Amino acid sequence: xxxTTTAAALVAAGLVLAACSAGSGSSGSSSTTxxxxxxTGQAAVDTERLRIGLVxxxxxxxxxxxxxxxxxxxxxxxxYETLVKVDQEGEIQPSLAxxxxxxxxxxxxxxxxxxxxxxxxxxxxTADDVVYSINQVKKRWTVSLKSAMDVVTSAKATNPTTxxxxxxxxxxxxxxxxxxxxxxxxxxxxxADLANRPIGSGPYxxxxxxxxxxxxxxxxxxxxxxxxxxxxxxxxxxxxxNALNSxxxxxxxxxxxxxxxxxxxxxxxxxxxxxxxxxxxxxxxLSFNNGKGIFTDKKARQAVRYAIDHQALLDxxxxxxxxLIGSMVPPTDPWYEDRTGDYPYNPDKAKQLVGELTTTTxxxxxxxxxxxxxxxxxxxxxxxxxxxxxxxxxxxxxATWLTEVFTNADYDASIVAHVEPRDLGAVFGNxxxxxxxxxxxxRAALAKADRGTPEQxxxxxxxxxxxxxxxxxxxxxxxxxxxxxxxxxxxGLPQNAxxxxxxxxxxxxx
Length: 510
What we know:
- By secondary structure, the chain is α+β, with helices and mostly antiparallel strands.
- It folds into 2 domains: 2-198 and 487-509, Alpha-Beta Complex (Dipeptide-binding Protein, domain 1), CATH 3.90.76; 280-481, Roll (Dipeptide-binding Protein, domain 3).
- It contains 13 helices and 19 strands.
- An 8-stranded mixed β-sheet has the order 9-10-11-2-12-17-13-16. A 5-stranded antiparallel β-sheet has the order 1-5-6-8-7. A two-stranded antiparallel ribbon has the order 3-4.
- The protein is globular, with a radius of gyration of 23 Å.
- The two termini are 44 Å apart.
């Protein structure tokens, strides 16, 4: 057996559900400004509390039964931990497991656990908790990402600090999936009320949730790892991006976690704030319902792709900030290829295809998120210009959008940022997913990528991205940038947001 403690061996094995493979670790490498003006941005950083402004408050706190990114953004890595985690370079590192080994046939993983871990309710982490958590994904989780655990045939506690997991076949995706919410480790006696009272082993404990306002976390005084800088952290939620900016300018928050009005960044450029600009793995997708309605016709899908002037859209709805990619693969993934040329802006070609359709009606249903509503207006206008009959309605996010679009697939098109790392297979490889895309050729490419050598994985994943793009399974509007604003004394903010979590333990002060 080969002992592995970093991502090097995993890169060699190849990964399908990994996070971005490149990144930068702190605000020190980001674009920042500083100055001596008198705004609140210059106030000394209070380590007793940190207030982070976000949008998209979760509907509950149980990511075992509720899809969406808002819950792991707040809880994963902060309240809940995993056996292994991804660092800012995209490499897999030990976490609750001090090390792991992989058998030569790549089917058996043996994890050695940290012996100093105590859950927030006071019980010690044991191998039984890990086995319980893996089995719960297979037996009781209901969210779409649970399929990442299907390849596991058994998880066994060989002693209180050792867990052996056996897979039915070699899988390049499984270990990386264990760095995501799927790999969260629960106390087997602490899951009675996950929707309201999460209990984990992380550097922060859940303290309070004021619905419609904030989620408060408190530093775990018994944490096994390095003590986090801030005693208390609150995620404060704003539906209006202007209100989010105002809260920063007035000193009501210390960090804007995700700038939702990029055209407003200039107001923070006076030297009193640090402005961080990087990238993410959040593909803003104009998704099609491939299972029913107008987009069962490939000509309709192709017409939409030709009709969208992506640069004009990005300039109009997101102040030109972001990256045009043309596929479901960000440039930080090893199998990225620029596919923006597959369907270049060609309104004449779009009009020709629209003229060949039996119906031109599109029901565009977008979530009430700033980027989605702003880009939805541009998409509607551009599609109408080539002859589509588009009606747009906005659905409250997350609850209504998740029910109507994600769960019931009651839509023709929608716009949403897919922020889960390396999620091409999750979004298009499962015919029951909300995109309802059913392509055996794609699934074959994904299966080969998961089983194959590193070289085969890269080749097959490139093929998968090509298949999706050429078949116009969706349109890829742009890659969401990482835009953050913070008080200048806060350190450790990531330039590139490459995981599901807002990592609070990485933050500090200077």
